[in-house]
Design goal:
Elements lengths: L7 E11 L2 E7 L13 E4 L2 E7 L4 E6 L1 H6 L10 E6 L18 E11 L2 E7 L13 E4 L2 E4 L2 E3 L2 E6 L1 H6 L10 E6 L1 H11 L14 H6 L6
Antiparallel strand pairs: 1-2, 1-6, 2-5, 3-4, 3-6, 4-5, 7-8, 7-13, 8-12, 9-10, 9-13, 11-12
């Protein structure tokens, strides 16, 4: 688990094909690795990866085909800057929100505009994630815990303050860039809870629809 509070901007040192998937080597910058051991988790742009090598100034991790297919990791190349966060501990200050490091989908930066000293980004999420994104709710973008300022269909707006721009890779975002998205865990659990006993019936029908809500008294006719 993570908090979505980025600890360091690192960079991709190398991406090495290995037996059909990839081993990624990450230079970790100011990230303190003194308490990291082999097998520990580190989030790279919001993707939870397991450290399999610790050369001293970074780490290496294996990236499966599933992860490559479901995230924007394929867009990275040698030299690409990345957001880094170590897994939280029982004494970690939870400054963001609970983040699993399991990417739900890949979004796209639609627009960028200045608003005083802040920057506003409009991001388009995959349509199947739109129901989990709420005004003033939490969302993780490339591993960064953020608050949604507005929602319009599958698109949402973020207002990013100067500190966040300087401590993450968001300052480099331009329209067209793909970003990793993880929706709020609570929204996913709530969807499952609303299914009640029906959650055990069929894996093919386990989603909340407007018809389901109406039939079970959650919507007024």
């Amino acid at each position: 688990m993570f908090t979505g509070i980025i600890e360091s901007i690192g960079s991709i040192r190398a991406l090495t094909p290995k037996g059909g998937d990839v081993r990624v080597h990450v230079a970790t910058g100011k990230l303190d690795l003194s308490d990291v051991k082999l097998g520990d988790s580190i989030a790279v742009n919001g993707v939870c990866l397991t450290a399999v090598e610790l050369p001293g100034d970074g780490f290496a991790a294996d990236v499966s085909r599933e992860t490559l297919d479901c995230t924007a990791m394929n867009d990275l190349k040698s030299g690409s800057p990345v957001n880094l966060e170590k897994a939280l501990t029982p004494t970690t200050r939870l400054g963001g929100h609970l983040v699993s490091g399991h990417v739900d989908g890949v979004g796209e930066i639609v627009s960028r505009s200045d608003n005083a000293r802040a920057v506003e980004f409009r991001i388009r999420a995959p349509k199947d994630l739109a129901k989990y994104i709420a005004h003033k709710g939490s969302i993780t973008v490339d591993g960064t815990s953020l608050t949604v300022n507005a929602v319009d269909g599958a698109e949402f707006m973020l207002t990013i303050i100067p500190h966040t721009l300087s401590e993450t890779i968001m300052a480099s975002y331009t329209p067209g860039r793909r970003v990793n998205l993880e929706v709020d865990l609570l929204a996913r659990y709530l969807e499952r809870l609303l299914l009640g006993d029906k959650a055990a019936e069929s894996t093919s029908g386990g989603t909340i629809t407007e018809s389901f809500l109406a039939q079970n008294g959650y919507l007024k006719s």
